[in-house]
TrEMBL record:
This is SGNH/GDSL hydrolase family protein. Residues 1-23 form the signal peptide. InterPro entries: SGNH_hydro_sf (IPR036514). Gene3D superfamilies: SGNH hydrolase (3.40.50.1110). The lineage of its organism: Bacteria, Pseudomonadati, Pseudomonadota, Betaproteobacteria, Burkholderiales.
Amino acid sequence: MNTMWKKCICAAAVMTLMGSAAALENTVKPQVTEPIAKAPKVALLIGNSYSFYNCGVHGYLRGFMKESNPKLSMKTRMITISSGPLSFHDMKFYLSPHEQDPYAHVENGRLTKPMFDVVIMQGHSEAATSDKRLPYFRKYAVQDAKLVREAGSTPLLVMTWPRQNKPADIKKIADRTIEIGNEAGVRVVPVGLAFAEALKEKPDLVMYQPDKSHPSAAGSYLYGAVLYSVLFHKSPEAINYLGECEKPLPPETAQFLRRIAWKTVTEFYGWKQP
């Protein structure tokens, strides 16, 4: 093999490695990367309008579970507050038993088991981009994660997406959210990175509402697909499901978003493809 040919092969290998390493927009690496040990049966999702648009991301998640093979079953309680950061949510109250609560198994006024297997925390849309909001995002993510663990549940932190007219913000959102997730010792759910990956491949795909902030049906679908991938350590790629809220997606769009969700999650956590 001549020297020039060897140089070409080496250069190609380096470029491949560089391209692979730079595939996602984060530079900070997540510390909690292993799959959840056991498929959750009951989940609590707290957030704001980013989670309740298009009839709620829990509906999309339920759709993926229903069409999964084998079918998956998980009850999801979603509590959202319009424009609400994590500080608006009373986590201790949410995790406590209440009269007539079907998730609370109580004896002598005390829970006999945790109400939720997982608690998914979705913060304010500007929590990671606003220097004013960032300290509160950190404070309540760490504080709430501790409360969740003390209640016997597993906390997760959602990485949101940038505004449509500020795509470069994904780097700041990703790294700051991962830093806080690492400090809190929680899994970060890389929804924002999945948005970025989808738009890299299909820049014209409508992922936003006209306000350039809230998710379109495609955005909520991708959010749900990422949650499914993270919670169950399963690829959604083969699932024949097109959406919720009387907003079904074209099959090719749904298939594309399912692929992006699994690609992003496996690359983010460093999971091996089955």
